[in-house]
Amino acid sequence: MMIVDLIDEVDFKEKLIALGAPVTQDQSLLEVQATVLSWLRAYPEQTPFVKDLCTEMQKDNTTVLPEVSSVMAVFS
């Protein structure tokens, strides 16, 4: 039996919150995207951390839901 790590919307938001991004679990993914992009414009020094997070979450043994992957692509 193969065990696959799955990154869903909740996981993605939790990881962004852990980085200090001003997002909440109540926001839609489109709202999260807009919030993070605005945050990165205000604090560009955070950009490498968000990019690293997205890269880490897209490793070969991890499955990322398509809607989460679309938002992550914007940050890369």
Structure description:
The chain is mostly helical and about 80 residues long. The protein has one domain. It is built from 4 helices and 2 strands; from the N terminus they run βαααβα. It has helices spanning about 10-20, 30-40, 45-55, 65-75, and strands at about 5, 60-65. It has a two-stranded parallel ribbon.
Q: Fraction of residues in helices? A: 55-70%
- The N- and C-terminal alpha carbons lie at a distance of 33 Å
Question: What spatial form do the alpha-carbon principal axes imply?
Answer: globular
Strand ordering within the main sheet: 1-2
Can you summarize this structure?
The protein has one domain (5-75). Helix content is 61%, strand content 8%. The chain has helices at residues 9-19, 29-42, 47-57, 66-75, and strands at 5-7, 62-64.
List keywords for this structure.
76 residues; mainly alpha; two-stranded parallel sheet
